[in-house]
Structures are given as C-alpha cells and as structure tokens.
Amino acid sequence: MSPSPLRPLLHRALPPAAALLTLTAGLAPAHAASAPGWRISEVITGTTDLQALATSGPSNAIAAGTTTSSLVVQQWNGSAWRPITPPPAFVNLPSGGVNVEAAGTSSPGNTWLFPEAGVNTNTQYALDWTGSAWTVFKLSAKNTVLATAVFSPTDVWAFGAKPGSGTSGGFGPAWVLHYDGSAWQPVTAPGTPVQVSAASATDIWAVGPSAATVNKPTQVNIAMHWDGSSWHKLALPKLTPVGGQPWVPAGIMAQSPRDMWLQETVAVNRGSGFAPPGVTLLHWNGSTWAQAAQDLTHTYDPGLTADGHGGFWLTSTSQNQQVTHIVHYASAHWHRQLPPTEPGFINGVGGFVLIPGTTSVWGTGILTSTSGPATEADIIKYGP
C-alpha cells in the first residue's frame, strides 16, 4: 500500500519543450552509495516536473510528472529507475497539457496515476499500470483528484474536490471515489479530503474543510477517519494566530487509529502573498490532541513524512522561493540541511515518501542552473 504524497511544490506550468519528449535518464550520485544521508539517485534530463511519487517497498516505486505537453513516468525496480511509455493520448498533446495530481502503488503490477489533461476542461483521468499495459478511466470533466490510496487491484481510493461555489475561495465540496476492481463508485465523506494518509485499508485519515463550511467565506477544517466501513469526523484544536494569520492543515501522517500526526502551517497573508514563518506538529492518540512541536522561525512547505523510527521529514523554503532545506524533526530537535545537488545547480525539493518497512525515503526535486534558466528533474534518496 502506498498513499500518494502531497503534490510537490515545483513548477505547475513549464515552457513548451517539444524537442524534449524523448527523455534520457542518468545516475548522478551526490554521496557514496553506501553512505547514509541524502543523495541524488536519478536525473531526468530535459524540462520535466516530477509531481507525484509513491512506493510499496524497496523494489517498487513510481515517479510521475510532465513536460507540460506529455506525461512522464519512471518506475524503480529495486536496482534502477526505468522510464515507462505513457498511453498515447498523454504524449505530445497538440493543445493543452497534462499534470499529475496523485500516484499510488501496491505492487509493480498495480500502479495508479491520476493526471488532468486538456485545455480549460482539465479532464481528470485515472491510469492503471499493470506492469505491461495501461487502462485509462475518464473520471470527470470538472472535478479534481487531490490524493489517492492504493491497497490492491480491487481496493483503490481517489480523493478530491468538486468546483466550489459561494465566496470561500478555497476547496470545493468533497469528491471521493472507490474502485473495487470493476467500477468507480462515489463515497460520501464529512469533508473535503485535501491531505490524505493511510496506514491500512481500514485506517485512512484525511483533513480538509468540513462539508458544512466548504462554500462559506470561512472554511473550518476537520480531520476525517475511515475505519473500514464508514467515515467519522474529528474537530481540530485551535492554535493561536501568528501575525494575525490563522493556522491551516498542511500535512498528515497516519500510523494507526491511535497514532496520527498533523502538520499545520500559518496561512498566507492575501495582502502580501506570503505566510508568516511557522510550523506546528499535532499528535492524536485516539482520545486527545497534543501539541508535540513548534518552530516559528522558518517557512515550511506542505508535506509531512515519517522517517521510520519516530521522527519526520519536512521541507522549508525561503520567502523568495530560491532556497529549499530538507528538515528533520526527532526527539524535540530540528535539523536543517541543503538537499544534494550537482555542480552549477540549485536543488529544490518536492514530495517525500517513506519506503515501507525501512528507514529509507524517496524524494523528488528540480535542479535549476545557477547560470541560466535550464532545469532538470531529479529523484533523491535518504538511506540505503
């Protein structure tokens, strides 16, 4: 099982690059392969944005993204990253582009991608990769998938939102679908699942605006839990505003029904376009919330990933979006480090996923040349 991480905070629109549709990949290690720590595992040359990442174990991972006009897919087989040819309808789109909203995988033969494609309509699709062939599902011409959880070929979730109405300016009503191996069926949820984390098929957590407030000027965020048969809602604790700005959920990490972690960051000031620095980690033990940690000195990106031994990985980006740090939190200590890079490049980091059963982590990034606009996508790894 591998729920999709939050969509990486990389480019959402890339310049046309028709000449870059044939991609080549090369290894570019930043550290010795046997040394612990972060290193570059793979570089995908050409203007590519890796937008989704998922893994089910040491021998299976998927990374997917876009060149704007074409879908890009890379799969890890335990020893190397290999490109997968996408369905023809998602290659070199003559009008419009493609963006990958989420990815999930439970095995090399059961991988799912959720791309949007087209102009204006941004039609939402689900793509099922069996290891040898693709099956394409058209899900909606107006709704958007935000996350997924993939447990087996007969147990796949798509979590998303419908277009909003009213004056909220936020996410619209919930749009949740479940695939049983033959068809997608709608499932009613108590709120819009913006961030999702699943510990098992009977233990899925999500967070987002409640159904009662989703189209109101002020949305109230709630936590939601799937116990295998129904969804239940849970109120979130109120945190003291920072600089007059409220806190909002930005990441979630489920480990059991009595062990769920929530990342909150300070909301963006609509006047300045920036958010005050700050991150808070909240813990749910099955009965009460506790504030486990807080840092009010740095600006954090959405996304919370377990490290496999009690701590967490996050990313922090400077206000001018020029410098990204990888941040590790464990035992009341914060540790910040620059991501691995190549000579002449700056590396911006997107999403992380923990490889189940290990303390190793995959991540995506984008290498930007210090001497020009050139960029390359990369896949980074922590641990063996």
What does this structure look like?
With 384 residues, the chain is mostly beta strands. It has one domain: Fucose-specific lectin (Neuraminidase, 6 Propeller). Helix content is 0%, strand content 51%. It has strands at residues 25-26, 38-44, 49-57, 60-66, 71-76, 81-83, 97-107, 110-118, 123-129, 134-140, 144-152, 155-161, 174-179, 184-186, 195-200, 203-209, 221-226, 231-235, 247-256, 259-266, 279-284, 289-295, 305-306, 312-317, 324-330, 333-337, 345-354, 361-369, 375-382. The strands form seven sheets. Strands 1-2-29-28-27 form a five-stranded antiparallel beta sheet, with no helix packed on it.
Structural class by sheet pairing and helices = mainly beta
Query: Cα distance, first to last residue?
Result: 21 Å
Low-confidence runs: 3-35
What is the CATH class? Mainly Beta
Per CATH, the superfamily is Fucose-specific lectin
Proportion of beta-strand residues: over 45%
The largest β sheet comes out as:
5 strands, antiparallel
Q: How many individual β-strands?
A: 29
Question: Spatial order of the strands in the main sheet?
Answer: 1-2-29-28-27
Helix segment tally: 0
Q: Give the count of structural domains.
A: 1
Shape annotation: globular
Binned, the helix content reads under 10%
CATH topology: Neuraminidase
What is the rounded Rg?
Answer: 20 Å
Describe the secondary-structure layout.
Elements: E1 25-26, E2 38-44, E3 49-57, E4 60-66, E5 71-76, E6 81-83, E7 97-107, E8 110-118, E9 123-129, E10 134-140, E11 144-152, E12 155-161, E13 174-179, E14 184-186, E15 195-200, E16 203-209, E17 221-226, E18 231-235, E19 247-256, E20 259-266, E21 279-284, E22 289-295, E23 305-306, E24 312-317, E25 324-330, E26 333-337, E27 345-354, E28 361-369, E29 375-382
Antiparallel strand pairs: 1-2, 2-29, 3-4, 4-5, 5-6, 7-8, 8-9, 9-10, 11-12, 12-13, 13-14, 15-16, 16-17, 17-18, 19-20, 20-21, 21-22, 23-24, 24-25, 25-26, 27-28, 28-29
